[in-house]
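cache lookup: miss for this entity combination. No prior model stored, computing from scratch. Input as submitted by user K.M.:
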Amino acid sequence: MPRPGGMQVAQKSKDFKGSIKRLIKNLKPWRKLLVLSLVLAMVSAILSLVSPNYISDLTDIITEGIKPNITETTFTDIMKDPSIPLEDKQELQNMLSSLEEDATQNEMLELMDELPSSIYNKIEPQMNMTRIKNIGIFLGILYLLSVIFSYVQQFAMTTISNSFAKSLRTKISKKINLLPLSYFDHNEMGDILSRITNDVDTIAQNLNQSLATLVSSLTLFLGSILMMFITNWIMAITAIISSLLGFIFMSIILNKSQKYFIRRQEELGNLNGYIEEVYSGHNVVKAYNGEKQAYEEFDVLNKKLFDCNRKSQFLSGLMQPFMSFVGNLGYVAVCVVGALLTMNNVISFGVIVAFMIYVRLFTNPLTQIAQATTSLQTIAAASERVFEFLDEKEMPTEEEQTKHLDPTKVKGSIEFKNVKFGYDKKRIIINDFSAKANPGEKIAIVGPTGAGKTTMVNLLMKFYDINSGDILIDGVSTKKLTRQNVHDLFVMVLQDTWLFEGTVRDNLKFNKKNVTDEQIWEACRVVGVDHFIKTLPGGLDAVIGENDGISQGQKQLLTIARGMIEDSPFLILDEATSNVDTRTEELVQKAMDKLTEGRTSFIIAHRLSTIKNADMILVMKDGNIIEQGNHDTLMAKKGFYADLYNSQFKKDI
Amino acid sequence: MFKLFKNFNKKDIMAIIMCLVLIVFQVWLDLRIPEYMSSITRLVQTEGSSMNDILLQGFYMLSCAAASLFSAAIVGYLASGISANFSMNIRSKIFNKVGNFGMQEIKSFSTSSLITRTTNDVTQVEMLISMGLQMLIKAPIMAVWAILKILNKSWQWSILTGIFVIILLVVISTIMLIVIPRFEIVQKLIDKINSVTRENLTGIRVIRAFNAEGYQSERFEEVNNNLTKTQLFNQRCFALLNPVMMFIMHGLNLGIYLIGAILIEKAMMMDKITLFSDMVVFSSYGMQVILSFLMLAMIFMMWPRAEVSAKRINEVLEAEVSIKDGKYTGKNKKEVGTVEFKNVSFKYPDADDYLLKNISFKVNKGETIAFIGSTGSGKSTLINLVPRFYDVTDGEVLVDGVNVKDYQSEALHNIIGYVPQKAFMFTGTVTSNVKYGSNGKEITLDKVKEAIEVAQATDFVSKMDGTYDAHIARGGTNVSGGQKQRLSIARAIARDPEIYIFDDSFSALDYKTDSVLRKELKKYTKNATNLIVAQRIGTIMNADKIVVLDKGECVGMGTHKELLNSCDVYKEIALSQLSKEELENA
């Protein structure tokens, strides 16, 4: 089916050959289907190449049935035939003699139709109806086979492209789990998302169309050239030259229009971006009287879009009429040259009919080949992005990590020994940090926004590896523990209240197996969120999703309950409660306090009560731990901490 | 849809009529072509016809084809002009209309919906118009004309063509009926796969901390499976279309020839040649009929989508703008720098509950008034009434002693420096962002620098590439939340307003920057009136007047000290943030 718009802008790939090669290598599991599909594409192309010859035969047989038998021999045959009455023979002779020299064929035929049936039967042209029937049946079967083959071929191709897309999505999703966190800190989420949906989709869709089309079009193209030359070389050259003339002209237009299409895409993007900006900043635009400025800028962008919109639409609209003109041109050329040859008895009329179809068979694949190559380029560009992601460096494997700590038996001491760390190997931000926390102690981490408090989380959870030094849990180096084992030892409750779309129960249980409803309710009771869950329609079976009306505070409580259920000896907690009303905040804080009971806790502290009661305070600034000690010693030091603490309560507003 | 078409002006309509005429001409030409084909065929077959005759007919046929191409080009030119112009005008109309919207209308449509209405929906309608002008007009004319041409040739052929058209339509509509509802499902599954991946990315730390990678992978695979299955089904259905169409075209051709053979066999000799050329002609007209119906089917596939888009566009264009400009230009002021609320109540027009109930206060030049309360207490709503983002339901808001409803909005906004809750950056430079908008005065570069200095932003701006001319990316993604907030404050300062409105504008700043900024601001804006909404007690405890809001009602008004003694809600908020001794120390 012709696509509206009719054109696609090819995306540029960095290494076309390499990407396509790799793509084909990745298609290996579907090798058999792929071969089947491509062979079928070729077969059905060959079938449609064969059919014009039979149509040509058909026409010839019909043509034979038009011309009356009025040669010298039939005339003498009739005259000699004793079964024909004499008066009938007389009539024929009268008729022939009455014919004037310049009588038209029609006049002659009209007279013949009036001849007596005995003679009429003799000179009536005979059509070979059995052959017609046979060719008809044969062609019918041929077309039917062609339909079946091409459907099976497309069926196979859709299967390949969709399963391939599925496998790519799975690979990307698995890859996400294997990448170090640093990758996500440096790359935008939108980018990864667009690879998993847009790029994979683009590959699937274009793969579906391009490979088989390319094969069948090439077969058709080469085959029709071959068939044309076999049938008649003069006609072949005529057909090819006349269509190519048209195509050269068309490719000139195409080349010109390509740039308008690219520009149109860009302008559309610019305008959409601007609209988005002005609409989302509506209150600022209004409050600052920016409307006029906005209209003016919009107008400029809108006019620019109009300009290339109009040009690109015009040019793409031209394609279809141009194609049919090229078709007609080919037709006339074939007819004229064909007529010349027929009159000189070089070819039969059927050859002309066959060539009419060849011209069409020959011109169609040219456009299709052009489209398929565009598709292939798009595939190459999209798969480059996907492969690039799949090639990202993964976290090191953990075969050497042989020790294992059982979360139920861990006592809960943790020690930092001369830890050195930097996100960038050249820029060490934590220099020689040492500290020790005994089981059940509370360590508060404080500092201004952006001071790198999450760095501590990253190190504790082994999200990042330290450059040198060691972190020991119950005296065992975390370097000797698998990441999974370390994660098992920690409960982590962060500020962003991450919950997934699913039931409350699934969210609370999360990865932990064999959790009974009683245990869930128990945890919820401790956290104080049990009443809230009971008010939800379906209780534990209520679905959390977008627009679920669950407030930020309730979500925070749910994440705390989730941590409670996980029940590990260490705790990492971010106290920040944003956008929570006072009453819920109180609830959340109570729940947090419950969570810290009996656990060695690292708390990103926002409350003074936590800070003051902490066994140790780590003060962070610009990614580094600049001071450590408890509240009193740090205040006495009159350093950064004291400054920070006091600044909130200065009297001068 | 037709309502939108009213936006065509006279010139467009002239162009559309031109298109119509040209298309009729084009169809006439297109249908002439097979006639020339048939006479060429006849000439080739009749013995003794001269080469010149054939060439002449060939020349006629090519002229027709060329003329048809030419007229198609003109139609294409006109149609692209009409549709591009149409979309430009509609887009501009929507944009202007949205510009006049108050927050009320923005909220009821939602920003993202307004964006798709201005961009995507307009493109949908534009596509229908540009395709429609060419196909929708051409297809029926072509179909009817071609049918008329072949109707009197032979009923056997006509019936055959009719049968094939019906088969075509049945196949297309069956496939569409099955597949189109599934397209929506596919869209939903794509959204779902996006949202699961988004979950996996946003929650990557949590997932790893809980060792739940496998769990999440299972969830992903489930959606992945569903998506693949539905896609496969859809595409397998669609894959039928092409082979069936090919079969119909070839089959019709073959059928016409076979029927033709029988007819010729039975005919009188005189009619045989005519029948033969009729047959050749019919096979090409029959193809035209099929193609026309194919085009019509395509238009009907596009129509419903465009119709939905047109409806969405009309909703915007027809929306009533609730806030109407007054006449007061800000001259001959009675008072300067005052804001007064007189028994103000507010609710959204379609809501039952009041968001603000009976609020009254007055703040004078140079004073600072602060608003505090839990989320949903109505602080932001209250402060948004001053620049008249919303209109009050009852009572009056007076600025400089004049009701805000009487102001020309430009005059009102000229005296206000509004800093929104969510700092907003425009694509451009630091300077263009700070001097954004207009207030009747030229904002000099010195002023910009000064504003940036006061807003405590000089530090990071001077470190940026290009300092004051440093590029700000779309959505301000290249500056942090706190930096955005400071620039957004600088923008207000650069205007030198009489009245500042800070809608929780210090939240992304750390305590220290917050306090330094406020100190500097206080010095700089000695004569200006400040309205501050805040969550942190520390930010507002030194205000001249604090208004405590709870569920839309004013439950306390006074200074920090007064409120600590008199207002329970205030005390509760304060206690949750500061310890007792700290409160007393303050």
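stored under new cache key. Residues 1-7, 649-653 of chain A have pLDDT under 50 and may be disordered.
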